[in-house]
Amino acid sequence: MMEKRNRYRFLWALVLVLILSLTVWPGRPPVGDAQAAGGPDSGPSLSGRLVDSQGEPVRGARVTAWADDEEEPLAEAESQPDGGFILDLPAGPLPRLTLRVERPHFAPLEWRAPYRYLTALNDGQAVRLPDFEMARRITSGFWVATLTFVAILSLIALEKLPNTMAALLGVAVVFGTSFVGGAIHPDLFIFDFERALEYVDFNVIFLVMGMMIVIGIIEETGIFQWLAYQAYRLSRGRAWLLAIILMGLTALASALLDNVTTMLLMTPITLQIGLALGLDPLALLLPEVLASNIGGISTLIGTPTNILIGSYARITFNDFLTNLTPGVVLALLALALYVLFVYRREYRAAGERLSASLLARLRENARITKPVKLRKAGIVFIGMLFFFVVGERFHLEPAVTAILGAVSMLMWLGSDVEEMMKVVDWTTLMFFIALFMVVGAIQEVGLISLIAAGIKAVVGDNLTTAALVLIWTSALLSGVIANIPFTAAMLPVAGFLTRSLPGAGSKILFYGLSIGSAMGGNSSLIGASANMVTAGIAERAGYPITYRRFLQIGLPATVLTVAVGTAWLFIRF
Question: Could you give the domains of the chain?
């Protein structure tokens, strides 16, 4: 026992040291700053910045300085994330100087220094050049990356391959083309492994992993079964009221946990209640999953799409809560009225009689056998919510809060680490990593830039038009394409429009993407992960949810709720 405690203490100390090193310890100065500082005997320096046709920085370009009579470059550097570069030139007279810039997927650029710059450099001065614009090239690698991404979306939409397998296949094609094809012809090169890793958002990976552990611990306490019992008891057997209560409960749970986990827990309970009432369980289950996808929009951790958006756009837990929750509540009210109208006959036929046998069975299943564990887990979870809200003031990343909460629960509850690691869905994490790489490939070759430029050409400088296009395009396409890969691909587009459109600094376009992609996932069975999880459990229980049936219920609900969400965004911003 003592050895086990020491192991836990060591683990806890290791995590604290890691977190402190990431959040508090001062890092090394950027390369550019160190170079710019120079020394007292340093020679002249030449600095500048590389941008693309949209004014976005070009990183990773090789910049070399040449004298006409030299076979080797005088200096070379690589452009930084902000597109900047610094060349430290040797002291001595420079009769001529030529800069050459090369980067895959861009046309080579050559610049010859005019007389006034040469004079300043020969006097030992540091020279700052105007920005250089690099032109995109449509290479063979562009078509490989684009077609691979389209193929992945098709495989996922048609359910020909599991999501993770499809994404990993895409990564294999991209790397195979880069390393094998690139050796045959340079235009087939897309990116290398180190560059691919830069596109992986590890804030998302660790946030999802930490929340999986937390949810796995909370699930063991039986709190969801207890809530289902309370919902049925409060409804007094009235099916219509039960549906509303279950929708509200599911929406709230989806906001605090995530919609996939919520439906994993609620679906079996809902099936049991529906059968005992003599009601088609899908009349309760379909409204629940629609409410789940909507309810998760109100927080950073509620949906996978919000996790992606929050990490990319630096939108905090508190930002989602304050800017989207009122719109979510309005959309849920509209959804409730729609559900009561669509299922009015089923609810009326079920009657309003409280089943004593069902109540007893739910009460038995809802017995919380580990109250101490529930109390401790609840305290830690409330603490996590607190730091999700206020953590931005301390520059505390949501991923760090999730990992801290997970480790705190494991330590305090004395859980078996190896057993709890089994609740982590490593398949989903691999899906995210592979997806980031594939989306990074189409970003690298310039497809995202072309899409962003096309939308910008359509909307001009009109932010209202841009918001409407982004929201409704996201809503419609999320029903055809699973909303997670679609959102990942649209993030750079929303980022470009946010930087280029007047008044878009409020991040309304990112909030619009959140509403469109999450609510749009309600329009079809393949639109959201929660839909497919629910359908799988219901089918095993003998109540299959067909694509057509989900579309009949989900599509009108999507149009209604997205319209309400859009109206709220225009009121709010």
Answer: 45-133 (2.60.40.10), 140-198 (no CATH), 203-446+463-572 (no CATH)
